[in-house]
Amino acid sequence: METQAEIDFQSAVSAFSAAHSEPDWLRNLRLDMLEKYPALALPKFEKIRYQRWPLTAAHQPTVQASAAADLATLDLDYAQAKNVLVTYGESVITSKLDPELAAQGVIFTDLFTAVRDYPELVEKYFMTTAVKPDANRLTAFHTAFLNGGAFLYVPKGVTIKEPIQGYYIQDSTRPQDFVQHVLVVADTNSQVTYSENYATVGTEANLANVVVEVVAADDAQVRFSAVDQFSAATTAYISRQGNLANDAKLDWAVGLMNDGNVVVDFNTDLVGHGAHTEVKVVAVTTGDQLQGIDTRVTNLGQHTIGHILQHGVILESSALIFNGVGHIVKGARGSDAQQESRVLMLSTHARGDANPILLIDENDVTAGHAASVGRVDEEQMYYLMSRGIDKKRAERLVIRGFLGNVLTEIPAKRVRDQLTATIERKLENGQKSE
Amino acid sequence: MSKLEVKNLHVAVVDEDKSLQKEILKGVDLTMNTGEIHAIMGPNGTGKSTLSQAIMGNPAYKVTEGDVLLDGKSLLEMPVDERARAGLFLAMQYPAEIAGVTNIEFMRAAINARRADDDQIPVLEFMKFLDKNLATLDMSDDMVERYLNEGFSGGEKKRNEILQLMMIQPKFAILDEIDSGLDIDALKVVSKGVNAMRGPEFGSLIITHYQRLLNYIVPDTVHVMMDGRIVESGGPELAEKLEAEGYAGVRDDLGLDVKLTDEI
Amino acid sequence: MPMPETENTKNNATIASSVDELGLDKDYDFGFHDDVTPVFSTGHGLTEDVVRAISKEKNEPQWMLDFRLKSYELYKKLPMPVFGPDLSKLDLDNMLYYQKATDKKYRDWEEVPEDIKNTFDRLGVPEAERKYLAGSSAQYESEVVYHNMRDEFNKAGIIFTDTDTALKEYPELFRKWFAKLVKPSDNKFAALNSAVWSGGSFIYVPKGVKLDVPIQSYFRLNAENSGQFERTLIIVDEGASVQYVEGCTAPNYSSDSLHAAVVEVYAQKDAYMRYTTIQNWSNNVYSLETKRAQAMENATMEWVDGNLGSKITMKYPSVYLDGEGATGTMLSIAVAGHNVDQDAGARMIHNAKNTSSSIVSKSISKDGGAVDYRGTVRFGRHSDGSKAHIECDTIIMDEESSSDTIPYNEILNGNVSMEHEAKVSKISEEQLYYLMSRGVSEAKATEMIIMGFVEPFTKELPMEYAVELNRLIGYEMEGTVG
């Protein structure tokens, strides 16, 4: 049966690649990974049992359009944005880039267009630096079944003031895999703010497999924010990988607001001297979902700084697992690895793990972690309630403050507001079920 | 009699992350003998603390030019503990906190570090001396049983620095803003401690912003430091002049082109 | 010892490569060995016949033989631990699983055979007893050769004997508690211990009886390729209290020895138990231990755990907080020098309301040693109002050394609080500078900082041990600063 499936997929993947006029290197890579992925190991997430999730139950890849009209339910407001890409399923709904930026050599487009128009540039960075296609079964699967995404390239010395915004909407009005790849390359001494949103339309139980790569060359500065809101019926693997050269800086701010089961693989390699990353993650889990989040920073270069901050709120019968790993390799002298994981447990049926792990192979370093699990801060509650706010509202406000460190990092006000509304909705639902 | 000389001292601070050097001291000259008390006054950010750390041998401060000599012998190649045993003492502005090491065991270790292995200070002698100094400084016995500076208030830390000074009996003590954060009673106590040390075998370099301290510890010589140099020296009356005219006044009198940190 | 699987194998390569060049540790004080010919030995290796021979030699009841044989079957099936240090060089086929050095146990120190007595005299064991202990025992290879308790404590109804004797003399009490907390199926080395266990301490403190002076056991491995599998069982009945101290040393050999103990402690309602270990095995001993305690209503269980020696230690003593208001603590230090991997930690399992736990771990690695903290704090469904505090501090002394901190915190209850903090760094330069600015040499200043760092631990030790520990650490630190 496996053999039968392989043959089917091989021609389907080839046909899919051909339909997008992909260059040979990509088609060959897809086919290579298609062959390899079943034998590769699943990525390892400490304390998270997800091995039986349907993350590799692929549908036959076919080129199909999605109906833009469905997006109305999401109330996306991108009309005013100068630099925006909206994709829905495999369809590109809109793609805009400020002509001034384009004139400076900035590229921001959907992945298929990028592969066609800039095959060499994409080939140089696509799964070569931040993550390798055969890193694990899910990255290999990703490579084989890739069916959407974006490419952002900021040339040397270019500073982009306006945020670059991507909306990647999963079409679950029918059975269809959502396999997205976002590749962000910030060349030497460039600066960019990139913000992305994932969401689902429809109720079909589909898989989502997202790989985001951020490659920051010497002295580049990238501010990256993301809000992930896959539906309860979506089972997702989300991988975000950063690779930083000398004195590069990458700030991550990610809100994990998915309703379904998700494993998240966050990894930042501080390769160059003086590279610096700040990773901020907030998550709210509800219902009976599991969100398992591995956040890892590896200090490879000297005088590198990696800080991880994770805040989570757990409601109803859900489970949230934060694994933080700060790894300083031998030779990374003068480096700093810090992490902080805070979890609010608002339910007696839920499960929360905060596992802050330090792996230190060098002595000339500073490393530390702090983790806590507890309830809503009583003092803050008292203060708010002394001003006449009722208990549930006060609780929601305190929690919003607790999640605020990522909220404030999101550049677009509308996205910020939507995230706030999402949190509010989740909290209200959670409070009701208590 | 001992002599401490600072000759054309240039000191830079190295920012390791950036591998940048910033020059703080730009040629300081200073000579003092035991039996003398010198005060260095100057505005914020002018290099006073840098001078004290450089004399003591803090590895974070790099001497790029010039020399520091004790009785004609250069100290620059000596690590900090050797300088201390040679007779220097620095009462620090921000002393380190070390949990688990009691104040008393540390002071004994410091005293014994100056004595031969077969001539360690007898416990009784040590305790008597300690009690005497505690009494001078109006400090309670339990202070010495506490961990070194851990959880000490600002005032307690300053007193503790002076207690160590009195226990160790150095030739030269540099007091780096020993008056900051002290109320008037504590200031009097600290001054009492330093004055008790005065004598032909003891010299002190007092670093301060304010003239007030010098009412209690009257210096023989006052130096004014600006922008990494000593710009004027004189008797105690110089401190009073500073108090009256401010640093900007002195600067303008001297016709210096120096921007003061807190100036807008 | 059962711990969740991790991918922590990054130190293994270093260990593997240095195993080959394992030499004798010059600085180890207890590395001497004495020529003692055992009166009975099962020889090298382990078979079902060896298990039967041990049981027969001990003249055990059938149920214990059955238990051993069942455990042996499990041992063969269970996998080696998949986390932590590399155990691939451990040659289990070459071990001596049972060696009996004397024919009897002695209550009078003077009667102990001269050569064995010499060993313990050199270790200062009887001297310590005379000074301050309520009772003490000494285990040499597989069997306890000496145990004694002051009459006053005997009269109070306290039972303190070796575990083999307990099986014979208190069969019901023994069977009620034996292997209830640590089942043979727990992990491979618990199964091994269950199959070949010998010696160890058995302590029963009756209701309301409080001992204010500690009981001590001393464990000594003497022969090359020795295995020591003591089994300790401690029951502290309601409202009773006891402190138990154990010390471990072994001679230096170029081939490995194995120490795989199982310790079970039951602290009943309102009981207090403190279990202190100073492990100072020589650098050829694998110390793979399973230590577990259960604390019932308002009981307090304290582990005080010092790991200074061994080649590889894997030890994660746990407290099952099964009664409301129970308290569990772990206070530990670990020092890993050249060729040493200390993989130690603690597990606190909150299964009842208003339980509290505290873990304070201090680790030092130097000269290429690896020191890892690995622990778990779990709040179960019924742990309302419980709290936990975890603090892990590590100093890495030099560039060759490393440290991993791997804490798991699992929370299944919304009404609990947990605080976890960890720090890894080298010796503070600020502190060094400050101490040196008072004229203290760098070596002395380093030693003072290290002593201060471990002080929360040493201050909890009985005086004699504290002095000894400070001396040992001082020794370890010598030559650290060149």
Give an account of the 3D structure.
The complex is a heterotrimer of chains A (434), B (264) and C (482). Chain A has 434 residues and is an alpha/beta fold. Chain A has one domain (2-375). In chain A, 24% of the residues lie in helices and 38% in strands. Chain A is built from nine helices and 19 strands. Chain A has helices spanning 2-19, 24-36, 99-103, 111-117, 119-125, 137-145, 378-385, 391-407, 413-433, and strands at 84-88, 91-96, 107-110, 148-154, 164-171, 178-186, 191-201, 207-216, 221-229, 235-244, 249-256, 262-270, 276-285, 290-299, 305-314, 319-328, 335-345, 351-360, 365-374. In chain A, strands 2-1-5-7-9-11-13-15-17-19 form a ten-stranded mixed β-sheet, covered by helices on one side. A nine-stranded mixed β-sheet of chain A has the order 3-4-6-8-10-12-14-16-18. In chain A, helix 1 packs antiparallel against helix 2, helix 2 (24-36) packs across helix 6 and helix 8 runs antiparallel to helix 9 (413-433). The termini of chain A are far apart. The mean pLDDT of chain A is 91. Chain B has a domain at 3-94 and 171-254: Rossmann fold (3-Layer(aba) Sandwich). Helices cover 37% and strands 30% of the residues of chain B. Chain B is built from nine helices and twelve strands. Chain B has helices at 48-56, 80-86, 103-112, 123-136, 142-145, 154-168, 184-197, 212-216, 236-254, and strands spanning 3-15, 20-33, 37-41, 61-70, 73-74, 88-91, 98-102, 147-148, 172-176, 203-208, 221-226, 229-234. In chain B, the strands form three sheets. In chain B, strands 6-9-10-3-11-12 form a six-stranded mixed β-sheet, with helices on both faces. In chain B, strands 2-1-4-5 form a four-stranded antiparallel β-sheet. Chain B has a two-stranded antiparallel sheet with strand order 7-8. The longest helix of chain B has 19 residues, at 236-254. With 482 residues, chain C is of the alpha/beta class. Chain C folds into two domains: 12-315, no CATH class; 429-482, no CATH class. In chain C, the strands form three sheets. In chain C, strands 5, 6, 8, 9, 11, 12, 14, 16, 17, 19, 21 and 23 form a twelve-stranded mixed β-sheet that branches. Chain C has a ten-stranded mixed β-sheet with strand order 4-3-7-10-13-15-18-20-22-24. In chain C, helix 3 packs antiparallel against helix 9 (188-196) and helix 10 crosses helix 11 (442-458). The longest helix of chain C has 17 residues, at 442-458. Chains in contact: A-C, B-C. The A-C interface holds A 44, 46-47, 314, 330, 343, 345-348, 350-375 and C 4, 6-8, 10, 379, 381, 384, 394, 396-399, 401-426. Strand 18 (351-360) of chain A pairs antiparallel with strand 23 of chain C, so a sheet runs across the interface.
